[in-house]
Amino acid sequence: MRTINAADITQNIKEMCIEANHFLANDMDRAMKTALAQEKAPLGRQILGQLQDNLKIAGEDMIPICQDTGMAVIFMEIGQDVHIEGGLLEDAVNEGVRRGYTEGYLRKSVVSDPLIRENTGDNTPAVIHYEMAAGDRLKITVAPKGFGSENMSRVFMLKPADGIEGVKNSILTAVKDAGPNACPPMVVGVGIGGTFEKCALLAKKALTRPVDQHSAVPYVKELEEEMLNRINQTGIGPGGLGGTTTALAVNINTYPTHIAGLPVAVNICCHVNRHVTREI
Amino acid sequence: MERHIQTPLARDEVKELHAGDYVYLTGTIYTARDAAHKRIQEALDKGGSLPIPLENNVIYYMGPSPAREGRPIGSAGPTTASRMDKYTPGLLDLGLTGMIGKGRRSAAVKEAIVRNGAVYFAAVGGAGALLSKSIIRSEVVAYDDLGTEAVRRLEVRDLPVIVVIDCEGRDLYETAVREYCTE
Ligand code: SF4
Fold it and tell me: Which chain A residue has its CA at the smallest distance from B128's CA?
């Protein structure tokens, strides 16, 4: 049994919220540079060049990469041998988000009720996903999610007979509908299998996988490559203003499902695909 | 084509703009997004007065992050315009000449753009740090309680935008994508 103090969790989450909103992870940073080198459209290159300048300014002047600093999505992988003391885990997480967004000059974009719509003023609550793991460590991933792209995400409850073609069509439909609204170049997270809510979670989690890392399952890796190619043939391009870079990556996660179903979730993310992971 | 133009934006100036033009805006513009549009519409419905002048003006769909000390504004990029579509034709009919946002507009908005000789610009989504450098002054002029969604008057210098829908209804999102589509 290892003891972790709730205050340490709060402090880490605060720092991670600020870091994620000012610096892209190395995988995303590399992907954005490659995109600029490969883009064929002149306006597309100009936009990707602006995004390079934007990242530089964000890091140097500590101005968030995007003004939509997102709703804080947080994955907690809790080792079975971890004991948390000094308060409730959920409170510790939300306190970290509160401090990160307030002290880090991040935008407060959360309303307390989906229909009454009053801003909570500190970007809480976070959306927290808990998972149990082996060991005595706590793995935290902070992934602030912007809603321009979140709004274009979809769940498709396909029939088994729709097969892999059905999955491909679902991904392309979601990407084309998203078009310029989702701030392309996008990262496309896909969940296949499980249940209605499980596939959505798989898709969200897929967005936190480095964009230069393919699935370990051979046919899924092939599907990721094929879909990235096809998405980049749509012509949507950077900013949706035409070009050959519409997506930087397609990350797909799968899970066993029911004999009667083939759920597919497509979680669209923009080029500001933020994710920071720490183990404490 | 690259152009430098002044805001407020006169209609005869709008006529010169074509879908695909790269434009640097200098002058005064106003911000309003979802909640501010809702309130403006409610004020119009009640016959009340508006917090900002519409005639010949440009609205930027943007809710900034907070400014650090000594800076006029935080990160300041565009939000998705289609959420404002419901309110936009009415504002165009009242004299609004320009909008800055990102993403597609509805058929009704396009018609109102053509009918009124207006223009829809896109700023690059997700470039809020860069775009903030073109904003030299920012002041909340209405709905302070809405926080980031309050209406702000901005002074901008060479704010980089791209003409997406021009006054003749050409839509760069449609034409440019077709050009690079190889499906
Ligand atoms: S979709 Fe992404 S890049 Fe675009 S405004 Fe939202 S968070 Fe920013």
Answer: A66
- The tokens of A104 are what? 């880090």
Tell me the ipTM for this assembly. Answer: 0.95
8 A C-beta contact, residue B35 and residue B62: no
CB of A148 closer than 6 A to ligand 1? yes
CATH number at residue B76: 3.20.130.10
Rounded to whole angstroms, the Cα distance separating B123 from B60 reads 9
Q: What are phi and psi of A10, to 5 degrees?
A: -55, -50
Label residue A141 by pLDDT band (50, 70, 90): very high
Interhelix angle for A218-232 vs A163-178, to 10°?
40
Q: Smallest Cα–Cα separation from B60: which of B158, B154, B165?
A: B154
The torsion angles phi and psi of B68, rounded to 5 degrees, stand at -75, 160
What is the domain extent for residue B79? 2-180
Q: Which residues of B touch A186 (CB under 8 A)?
A: none
Domain total of chain B: 1
pTM for the complete prediction?
0.96
